[in-house]
Amino acid sequence: MLDKLSVLQRGMELKLEEIQLSHKHKGNRGDNSEEVVRDFLREFLPLYNRIGHGEIVDTIGNVSNESDIVILNEYHPYLNDLANPSLFFIEGVAAVGEVKSNLSSKDLSDTLDKCTRFKQMHIDMQGHAFVVANDSDIKRFVMKRPFFLFIFASQLKLDTILEKIRTYNEQKGLEVENQIDGVFALDRGTIFNVGDGEGSLGFKEKSDSSKLEGYISIEQGSDNNTLFNFLTFLSSSMPHLRLHYPIIREYLR
Length: 253
Known about the structure:
The protein is an alpha/beta fold.
């Protein structure tokens, strides 16, 4: 099984390298790190998870910052081809992320501010909506939506990133559902926010099998792969919804 996972991980790495090389040969588009990640996600996520970038609105007038990555669910209407920055409805958003090519302390601070603003958005859940998820994931990923940071290279060590996130959350008094949910740095490793430990993405202590809570950091090394962790996070934090009427209806009133 581990050998098969290693092959899968290497395939992801090669695909990302291929996309990066493709972008370097597109003239004035250059090495656009955000578009590289968007193209990577288009390769590996289901077709109904269309990928765009832009601002997000809710039914009470809140507007997010412009986001580098906006992953849609199957209920977002087809309003444009997503080639340019777009406007999205929060109920049709499955996850949101920021991309940094060379993360600095200021970049991290700005990203956490964007996350906090995004997490304040109101989601107008339809009556009798159906979701396949446990209570922990519903609180974090249905009534809110996941927010992640993807990093190509970081000036900060993984432990420093984690320390700054924890300090930010404490200073702002943020509950777990309003915190950043994952950080994926290709040169440093992964940070998962597993919340209360009861969600679909969980970890256990090796000594007594008790569930871990809060942030879990995994240093990048030969025995793990950040891209695999990234896709595992997305598959675990985007619960499948079943809605009964178009989400755009509430924006026409």
